[in-house]
Amino acid sequence: MCLNKDPKESFQNHIQQTMHKCNIIIDKNQQKYLAPKKTLAPKLNNLIKTHKEDKPIRPITNNIQAPSYQLARYLNKKINQLIKLPYTYATKNLKEVVQDLNNIQINNQHKITTLEIKDLYVHLPTQNIINITKFWLNKNSNQNIIVKQTLELIRVILDQNYF
């Protein structure tokens, strides 16, 4: 779909209005840093998968200067503070994975599997993301206003993107 006009200004205005309404999650001093005025539409680049047989292309976007980027980073940190998920594991790199595996007791009944993620983020079920986040926020917070404002910010981030 071809757009007649870059929606950046509209995105920025909507993000700023939503942040203003969500003053429990984001105080006024932070708002000017989370919705900067000098933003750009993300550029779509590609990376050829030379190790694959048909040499498919991996689309890559750099969203650092996109209107919702700073807000998304902030909200990610905030959600991690609000939600304590059970059984979460995250690794930074392969070295950390190897260290973690060395600390695990493995017997003959265990299996180790590797997975290749294909088409990551192409079709994210945004309503499911909102519902799951709402469930965990309600489970970890007794303040409805925090849940409501967090979900509103998630919606604006998911709605105000270029792809």
Folded structure, characterized:
- The protein is mainly alpha-helical and 163 residues long.
- The chain has one domain (8-103, 117-159).
- Helix content is 46%, strand content 7%.
- It has helices at 8-21, 28-34, 69-82, 94-102, 126-140, 144-159, and strands at residues 43-48, 57-62.
- Strands 1-2 form a two-stranded antiparallel sheet.
- The longest helix has 16 residues, at 144-159.
- It is globular.
- The relative contact order is 0.18.
Please outline the helices and strands.
Elements: H1 8-21, H2 28-34, E1 43-48, E2 57-62, H3 69-82, H4 94-102, H5 126-140, H6 144-159
Antiparallel strand pairs: 1-2
Rounded to an integer in angstroms, the radius of gyration calculated over CA atoms is: 20 Å
The major β-sheet equals: 2 strands, antiparallel
Helical segment tally? 6
Distance between the termini: 11 Å
Estimated helix fraction: 40-55%
Mean pLDDT: 85
Beta-strand residue fraction: 5-15%
Number of domains: 1
Widest sheet, order of strands: 1-2
Order of helices and strands: HHEEHHHH
Determine the structural class based on helices, strands and strand pairing. Answer: mainly alpha
Tell the overall outline: globular
Q: What is the subunit organization of this protein?
A: single chain
Low-confidence stretches: none
Count of distinct strands? 2
Care to give the gist of this entry?
With 163 residues, the protein is mostly helical. The chain is built from 6 helices and 2 strands, in the order ααββαααα. It starts with 7 loop residues before the first helix and ends with a helix.
